[in-house]
Write a structure and sequence with these properties.
The structure is a single chain. This protein is mostly helical. It folds into 2 domains: 14-169, Helix Hairpins; 173-250, no CATH class. It has 5 helices and 4 strands. A 4-stranded mixed sheet has the order 2-1-4-3. A hairpin with a 6-residue loop joins strand 3 (221-222) and strand 4 (229-231). Helix 1 (3-83) packs antiparallel against helix 2. The two termini are 32 Å apart.
């Protein structure tokens, strides 16, 4: 194998590792944000449940005050009724008393309904409190794990980056530029093997001349279809059975 190909294969390995590490470094903040948003949503649900509970208590208190006011008014009417000497006024006070009693009963019915809603709201707040606390605890632990993982990945990235820089310094600038142009276009598959005159990158059949040059390992050879750098080793030669089958398909 051409020594330059060996260097490029090692460089390609580092570039692939860097891409994987970079992808992981990019995903960690996304995962962290999702955990934070999930915990925040649970806390938001808890605050909403508390708000509903407070609103029910406020409505209940208003009803109590209104009922108390009507009871005060009813007692006043009863007092005035006992003092009046007019039959007409007596009947008017009696009507007001009965009307107020009905209104108080209606308010009491509403208050009972609010009491039931308050109990349900209290249970909802308790459940939301437990859920929010559990989600926050889980999120805090996972975020701590992510931070530790992020630090490890960043260390690996820095180490591999330094290795990659040292490897690149040993390669001729022209050859390195060729490699990096292909890397930019084709991703992490730049240097590919040739098996049975087939490019390991695009899987297209190579011209015989390109195949011979790749086997000769005298200089860099590029696939005429995809532009990748080609190399060949003896273990890439097809088995006798494979070669015969390929000839049969040809003819």
């Amino acid at each position: 194998m051409l020594p330059l190909i060996e260097q490029l294969l090692v460089l390609q390995d580092r570039d692939r590792r860097l891409m994987r590490l970079q992808t992981e470094l990019h995903e960690i903040p996304v995962q962290r944000r999702r955990l934070q948003e999930k915990a925040a949503a649970a806390q938001g649900g808890l605050e909403a449940a508390k708000l509903r509970a407070r609103q029910i208590e406020s409505d209940k208190r208003k009803l109590e005050l209104e009922a108390q006011s009507k009871e005060d008014f009813m007692r006043k009417c009863e007092s005035l009724q006992g003092q009046t000497k007019s039959n007409e006024e007596y009947r008017r006070y009696a009507h007001q008393i009965e009307t107020t009693k009905s209104e108080i009963h209606a308010l009491e019915d509403q208050e009972i309904g609010l009491m039931e809603r308050a109990e349900a709201a209290s249970r909802e707040v308790a459940a939301a409190t437990r859920e929010a606390a559990q989600l926050k605890a889980d999120a805090d632990k996972l975020i701590a794990d992510l931070s530790a993982r992020e630090a490890r990945v960043q260390r690996d990235f820095d180490t591999v980056s330094a290795e990659r820089e040292r490897l690149a310094e040993r390669i001729d600038e022209i050859d390195l530029n060729r490699y990096e142009r292909i890397l930019e276009k084709k991703g992490d598959v730049v240097v590919v093997g040739v098996k049975g005159s087939i490019c390991g990158g695009c899987h297209m059949k190579l011209p015989q001349q390109s195949f011979v040059e790749a086997k000769g390992a005298q200089s860099l050879v590029f696939c005429q279809n995809c532009g990748r750098i080609l190399y060949h080793t003896r273990d890439m030669d097809p088995e006798p059975g494979e070669a015969a089958e390929r000839r049969d398909r040809t003819y």
